[in-house]
Amino acid sequence: MSRIWKYKEANISSVSKELIDAADGLPILAKLLAIRGITDPEEARAFLNLENYAPASGSSFPDMEKAIQRLQKAIEAQEHILIFGDFDVDGITGTSVLYEALSALRANVSYYVPDRHTEGHGLNTTALIRLVSTRQVKLVVSTDTGITNFNEVSLLNGLGVDTIITDHHELPEHLPPAFAILNPKLLPGSSPLIHLAGVGVAYKLCETLMASYEMPQAQIDALLDLVALGTVVDMVPLLRENRYLVWRGLDVMARRERTGIRALLLEANINETAPMTTQVLGFGLGPRLNAIGRLSNAAEAVELLTTSDEDRARQLAAKLEQLNRRRKDLVEQCLLEAERHLLSTGELTDQKAIIMASKEWNQGIVGLVATRLIDKYQRPAFLGYVDDASQEVRFSARSIESFDMHHNLQALEDLFLRWGGHAGAAGFAIKQSDLQKLKSRLFQLCAERIAEHDMIPITWVDMTLNASQINTHLVDIVNRMAPFGQNNPMPIFALEHAGVGAQRMMGEDQRHLKVILSGKEPGQYLEAVYWDWGRERAKLNANSTYRAAFTAELNTFNGSSKVQLILKDLQDESRPEAIAVQSLVAPKAMPSPQPVSVDMPETVSAVELGSRVVKSESLVTTAPIPVPELPESVQWIDHRGRDGIESFLTQVILPSTQAGQTSVICRIFCEGTQQTLPFPVVQPDFCSRLDDKPDKPAHNLIFWDLPPDMVGLVQVMRAQDPKVIHLLGSKYETIPLYRPPREFLEGLMKLLLRLTKSHPEGSLVICLNQLAMYLSTTHYVVMTALSMLSRLGWAAVTVLAEEDTVKIQPLPDQMSTEQALHEFIEYRAFRTALQEVHQFREWLMTAPLQVIKSSVALEAMSGTYRVNQEREHHAINVR
């Protein structure tokens, strides 16, 4: 979708000499400050020199003294203190800060984090009664929660338990009757603490408490890495106290003294020497910590952040990484199902909102999917989880800039069982019986309050630069404004009339664009990357000029640094700036295919299969959604796990190959160097990914072997044009689904030695696709494997001029089994490529047939393949 560009510098008429002086004589820096509303020279100096910032005292909270006295009493009497946190990153880090501080003071303390799915946000009556009775709790300290829990606090009072609430959310009409309440919303609007996150409030309590015991300042400061993490991920404004705390926390985190953070950085593939930035926190660590709260119990994240046990930290970090990958898969599958719904119903044409719900979706990820839908379709998104047990539908909602979610939802408050939120996001629950009523009223509300132009995305640009101004000096200027976050975003610049040089797709699934841009003057070349450019977009036109919106950063490799542009938008200057919203949406109806029979296992659960289990019939907002087929009218039959498969296949294959039955053609997809089957057939007709379209289409296409990725699956189906697809994957009952990296490399060497036996010169010239077919794997696995053989010295590999052709000379005398593969830079790419093939085949072996069919149909319909497409071979270093 083309975007409207708006320039913030248009609102700045001029910059005073005094402001430029305060910005160390740098006009660009002064202008960036003015764009952010910082025009007073003294305020500018304070913004740029955080080392001179005077942090605010926690004593400014009205109830701070009461809270400190009650905690001191509990510590000295060894009363049991229960920390009750929330399951997002703010709550996890707040719980960790309180637990670590109170443990250092030798308090009798434990913590509890509720389950998102069964307990939800806030203090939970059932859990509190159980915890108070089993742990003999005398004091509850909440973090990032509790401010709306009037009844629960009253219950604790009745049980003789005091409550200290630390929270930062909006105040209710009636505050709970707690012993003490620490909430920045109770402070004057001018207070530097007004924007504290939940973890920031918890830290101010701990800082004041530890200072009262004269704890070393270094021990208090050691908590700041957790404060920075929670503050950045919770996306509170990075202004004044918050910005200072994050700045200090990044410095603490850079020392990598926290065991759990080290383990998490390792799992996130963040280099030990990489600088700690808010981007690392927000996009590297935050999603992994959030994933456990969405899919499991966030208490383990608290354990990770507070443990000093290296082995336990690695174990927990690995679990978070696994859950984060599953979270991504769940989001992709839910997004796939949601988009298929939108394309088939035509609601994008008729409505200005996206509203749908399913009982098969995971409650923890629907908000993430709503955000993805907004990014693509630019209208408010409301995604819900249907809970049959409670007869409720629980929605997560995300909004566009022009639609204040909290304000507008007040018009539907009569439908809500409970709700809350702010301008950009909200959550609410309704009765399942009110779902259609909610949809009708929401659609009408959005139609009345959202204009067509509101649904065109905006690219905000700070200022326009010339190519000559884009250098390392610019990056230094930008870094003066760090740390970046909410209300202080990284500056976005514009470059106009840029030419296009070399360009190529890169990344695991070829979704990212790398391009060389040129300025108006000769010799002005800039390297740029556009993340998530997408395979569906056309290549840039070398004869056109573009305007680019970008952030600038340093890219360091082998000790050398150069400026790299991270593109946010790229527009051909010869094309209109924006196009009508109506032309961006799908047709009102998709062609309806012939009904197909589905052999769906009834015992498979969403928990067992994770991301891949989203059944089309589970959407409760509309009638059943048609599933377009590829090829047309194909029937799928599921034989996975079927007993007596050899006997059945013999009955299917034999008639198709016997005399007089040649009109019924059966082909078996089976790759590898020896295409053999463990059961009798007469002249089996094998096929692979390399086969051209045959003279006659296959009536039966049998997947004895499974293609290594979605591209291969669709490729075979299009080539063979079958009427019936038999899904088996039975090859993997006798052959391992996954081969360890070293075993794969040794097997590849054996294959190469066998293939080169008939070549006197001892070398082999072969197409990489042919080698991939021999190995029953992807093009990319072969490329990375050959790169590893070259690095190990097991083979000499030369890329020839012919496309995708290599010359290979095995060097068996050089083979050693002692080398540590992980020491080579290529190893991670090679191992990941092997794992991706394994994961795709594992999905084909376990996912419900309807899900597989839907995935294939949507990928074919949209023209994109979201599952591991072949990679750009130039990205791999084959010598």
Structural class, by secondary structure, is alpha/beta
What count of helical segments does DSSP give?
A: 28
Average predicted local confidence, pLDDT: 82
How do the strands line up in the largest sheet? Answer: 3-2-4-5-6
Kindly report how far apart the N and C termini lie.
41 Å
Beta strand %: 15-25%
Helix content: 25-40%
Beta-strand segment tally:
26
Q: What best-fitting shape do the alpha-carbon axes yield?
A: globular
How many strands, what sense, and barrel or not for the largest sheet? 5 strands, parallel
Roughly how many Å is the radius of gyration? 30 Å
Low-pLDDT runs of 5+ residues are 576-631, 656-662, 861-879
In short:
The chain has 879 residues and is of the alpha/beta class. The chain has 28 helices and 26 strands. The protein has a 5-stranded parallel beta sheet, with helices on both faces.
